[in-house]
Amino acid sequence: MWIVIILLVLIAAYLFLIAPDKNSPDTAHLNGWLYAHRGLHDGNVNVPENSMEAFRLAVEKGCGMELDVQLTRDGQLVVHHDGSLKRVCGVDKNLRDVDFADLPLLPDGSRIPLFSEVLAMVDGRAPIIVEVKHYGGAAKVAKAAHEVLKGYSGPYCVESFDPTAMHYFRKNAPEIVRGQLASGGEWNKKELNYVSYFALKHLLVNVLSRPHFVAYSVPTDKVLSVWLMKRVFKPHLACWTVRSQEVLDYSRKQGYEYPIFELFTPKEHA
Known about the structure:
Blueprint: H1 2-18, E1 35-37, H2 52-60, E2 64-71, E3 77-79, H3 86-89, H4 115-122, E4 128-132, H5 138-149, E5 156-160, H6 163-172, E6 178-182, H7 194-201, H8 206-209, E7 213-217, H9 224-232, E8 236-242, H10 245-253, E9 258-261
Parallel strand pairs: 1-2, 1-9, 2-4, 4-5, 5-6, 6-7, 7-8, 8-9
Antiparallel strand pairs: 2-3
Helix pairs in contact: 2-4, 5-6
């Protein structure tokens, strides 16, 4: 009897940890779109990722978009994925250690855009998935993003791998649709310690973020927590990063509502 009771308690605790928010805001503004990962880019050559041109093309082609925000040394909120500037801009410095005016140019000769500039250009014509990066402090970046988004009336949602970023929105802006990013891939010890990797993979961080949707890597989603979450809680689902029509079709069959794609043209946009 005691073994049964202990097992039931453990199961209840497990479900409590992985549960999304039971009270979801309206998500109609996000439905029915494919989301271009970091805009419609070609791999950082002619149209760099997270560039104004990549976002302009996404709008032109009728796509939503996913983008990344983080802070420069002088507190400017910009759109850039990596903590380092090396891969995209060829400069071996961390973005958070450089003032906005001193940031290097993107490969097409354009500037790394301010988040406010991207919002002004999109102007509500397509929904935006805003990924809050953790560089320099996830809650600090979340607060900066929230301040900018207060002046934007277009459709958007926020997400992050760091649950403390979504915890900020949970406490300070519960009306904004928020998502927990997670991955079922192999552990990369250079990016995360094992405890953080395990907690993310198995959605145990949901207890902090209490997301309205979960954005999971496909097709590495064959994880017990994902299976349970889908069947017990039936949350909204996004998937990343889709790089073929085959994976896009798979994600839809698995119930993913917000596919995030890159480097191929989905059939409906061919």
